[in-house]
Design goal:
The structure is a single chain. This protein is an alpha/beta fold. It has one domain: Alpha/Beta hydrolase fold, catalytic domain (Rossmann fold). The chain has an eight-stranded mixed β-sheet, with helices on both faces. Strand 1 and strand 2 form a beta hairpin. It is globular and about 45 Å long.
Length: about 300
């Protein structure tokens, strides 16, 4: 693995014009501009679609779908981002698994605060099930806020009596609206993107005055995690959100959930988005792809 690559990624993020303290419209424009620098995804076909009453982007491998569906949720602190800003990362999973992905354009805060995104995610999952896709042929995946949405959507789905999917892949998930993890302090300044203060400000737009000490806002701390499917949580050691993953992994394991905590050293938040230019990103995506394939294969042979 290349120290030079990691240093270049850190410098690139610190030099980016993205400012998490801006107004929502400014954040959306700046984030879209920052992510527009990613190369177009290769080896896949992209097509607009609708799922659960929301626009979505379907991404399929050019060689044909081998089986399985990835329901993907993009990042952006529940305030910015879209399937377009996450298409490079989503396509990387599609290429590694041969599964199709449907990336959901869920409603964003502050216009649509908590729990709008969760409602949209559950509606999308429910439509897949009602459309004949077996739960065991579905894997949920997402990055940052979208990684957190994987967990909270499945908690809501579980409580609504829906079956759980084959598994979950969460890249640097946001899982604690209280911002109480030790990494909020220990990684301050090391994280090139976020601080506790910037995340608190963005989180307030999503919470809209609601108490952050709720299971669907802070599942890493307050949720009953029993009954969730196998989880793969990937994070970088240089992010203030690191403890969101470590604490959820500990509590999920205690609740009897199969969980893999996969932490890569000296890389930032959602480092997987640097696939093609960071060796650690490609290696992590390889592991995520194997997890998806293993989960889909396990479901296929289960009695």
């Amino acid at each position: 693995m290349s120290k030079e690559q990691r240093a270049a990624v850190d410098a690139q993020l610190r030099a980016a014009s993205f400012d998490a303290t801006g107004a929502p419209d400014e954040l959306r424009t700046a984030f879209a501009a920052m992510m527009a620098g990613s190369p177009p995804p290769l080896g896949v076909a992209l097509a607009p679609t609708v799922l659960g009453g929301r626009p979505a982007l379907e991404i399929t491998p050019e060689g044909g779908v081998a089986g399985g569906t990835i329901l993907y949720f993009h990042g952006g602190a529940w305030v910015f981002g879209s399937p377009e800003t996450a298409r490079h990362l989503t396509a990387a999973l599609v290429r590694r698994t041969g599964a199709r992905a449907i990336s959901l354009d869920y409603r964003l805060a502050p216009e649509h605060p908590f729990p709008a995104a969760i409602e949209d995610a559950v509606a999308a999952y429910r439509e897949l099930l009602e459309g004949g896709v077996p739960a065991e042929r579905i894997v949920l995946a997402g990055d940052s806020a979208g990684g957190g949405l994987c967990i909270t959507a499945l908690l809501a789905a579980r409580d609504a009596g829906l079956p759980q999917p084959a598994g979950v892949v969460a890249f640097s998930p946001g899982l604690d609206a209280t911002r109480s993890g030790e990494s909020m302090t220990t990684k301050e300044g090391i994280d090139p993107l976020f601080t506790r203060e910037s995340l608190q400000r963005l989180g307030a737009l999503y919470r809209a005055g609601q108490d952050p000490r709720q299971p669907l806002l802070s599942p890493a701390v307050f949720a009953d995690l029993s009954g969730l499917p196998p989880l793969l949580l990937q994070a970088g050691s240089n992010e203030v959100l690191l403890d969101d993953s470590t604490r959820l992994a500990t509590r999920a394991a205690a609740a009897g959930v199969d969980v893999i905590l996969d932490v890569t050293g000296d890389v930032p938040h959602v480092f997987q988005s640097f696939t093609g230019s960071l060796d650690e990103a490609d290696a992590a995506l390889d592991r995520a792809g194997r997890f998806v394939l293993d989960r889909l294969a396990s479901a296929q042979v289960a009695p």
